[in-house]
Write a structure and sequence with these properties.
The chain is mainly α. It has 6 helices and no strands. Belongs to the EamA transporter family.
Length: 118
Amino acid sequence: MLGRHGAWGVSVHTTWLAAVAFAVWGLVWEGPPAVATLTARDLLAAGFLAVAVTAVAFVLWYSTVGRLGAGRAGLLTGIAPVAAAGTGVLLGGAAPSPAVWLGIAVVAAGLAAGLRAG
């Protein structure tokens, strides 16, 4: 699919299909009156999450898969918890525990070994 539609095409279609699915699920679960309680701010927040977070992340991911291949790109999923720990600290959260630092070291070693092997 990625070869046929490209990173942008797959990302756009994945995002709008998910938005429709969640809208239907929301109507079934919460009922139509719940839609009336949404404010412009709620809709803007949902739009930001759909476009800036989801679609951009998909474009970056599928572009990486296209360039590195699935095997090597898959190794990069280990970066997410490391980025979360770092972002938490940058946003004023507590410093990671020694166990988290150990996990970060394991992830870094795994990435170094995996990316070097390919």
